[in-house]
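User: two proteins, same treatment. go.

Assistant:
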Amino acid sequence: MLSRCGRGTPRLVRNGHILHHGGGHFKSHGPLVSAIAYLETGNCGLNGENCMTVETTLKNPDPNAPGSGSSTDLSLIPPLAFNVPIHFGYHNGCDGKGKTCSGPHCHQAFHSPPQTKKQVACQKKNVDLAITFCP
């Protein structure tokens, strides 16, 4: 995770537990399922409330289950709210796949639960995910 915002602290959370805070690399030994990342700017709740989140599951695909690999998206579903621009992109497989949200009304992010086609999937093994705040 990289912040170019000049304020705030990147945070990676899963199941209400902070896995990583600050910039730099985080390596998961095994699948990383249902994690969120956001830039803590002073008003974010532990699960990203009041801030925009990157929601991700990073795992190797099961060859017998198409679509079972990694999936990442940007979320602004209330109580989440835009706080800083965010970009995410896959590396080491699925290079070039990702999304950017630069404002509160961006079309790349989820704004309500019934929306579809906002996730970016990757069906490659051992993929990396780069998250940049204020890209």
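Protein 2:
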Amino acid sequence: MPEAAGMPQAQPTVAHVAGVGHCYLGETVSLHTRVLVNQRTADLTLRISLPISAELRDQQPPEQFREALPVIEEDEAARYVVWRLQGALPIGSAYEYQVDVLIIDAGPMGVFESRAELSDADGTRLAAEVATVVVQTKGSYLRYLPEIYEDDALMARFLMLFESFWAPIDRQISSLHWYFNPDLTPGDFLPWLASWMDLALDERLPDERRRRLVRSAVPLYRKRGTRRGLQEYLEIYTGSAVQVIEYRAANLRLGSEARLGYGVALGKGNVPHTFTVVLHLPPVDSAGGLGKDEVTRRETERLRMIRALIDAEKPAHTAYDLRVEVTPANEVETF
């Protein structure tokens, strides 16, 4: 698309973040930098500054310049990792860099700071961003010891080693409650969580439906054996609209004993303790890439699973009729 005359063009941007917001002395921190080109340009220079005390462990260029190597520069204040993007750079292109740094000293403020600066071929600064990491210089385990150890630098560093080793375990324990939230727990944890409520999950279901089934398990158990409970269960399982029609009264029979009331119903096909389930489902081969035999097999398997679910949820003394209406995927009402 041609650019409008006189329309201002956006400058290239740079994003610069650390992989963690908090670390201990002696740990390695990964710095991630992303350059986004928003206008036609060429020959950009990315300069990433590191504290002079930090030790550069590794660096990774973007995929587009996999063979490129940075230039390392130093002055009295900092060390610089310099990358050059040479040649014409297309609009919308993005370049991602990674620098791994060993934190040796946190400075007087206890903060590790790195700056990413992007400049053009003339040296004009186009964008810049700073990434900071809070560095813990003393082990917090000191608070569990007598006050006399507070000023013992050796003890502080010694305890910090164990604290950094155990930090991942501490974080996992502190976030343990999220594992019991069906919306946040890892997908592999869902079957175990469902087993607490005697709920068997179909591994073929999309992750969102499995989470919704676990989340709705208790309310569904309260409604088990009811029309509404069966309808909600099927809607979650299939992801489509479901209609459950109950027949509670017998057909009206003319005669001397005929009475209109709650015990009879007009029309045909009214058999007490029966119901009909109407499902509106998309075709099993919406993309159209399966063979006839495979389509038949999948349709049969889908019906088998739906019948098994209905048999498990309906009252034992009832009978039902299942009607599946195949509807184009874009016309199926989803839940």
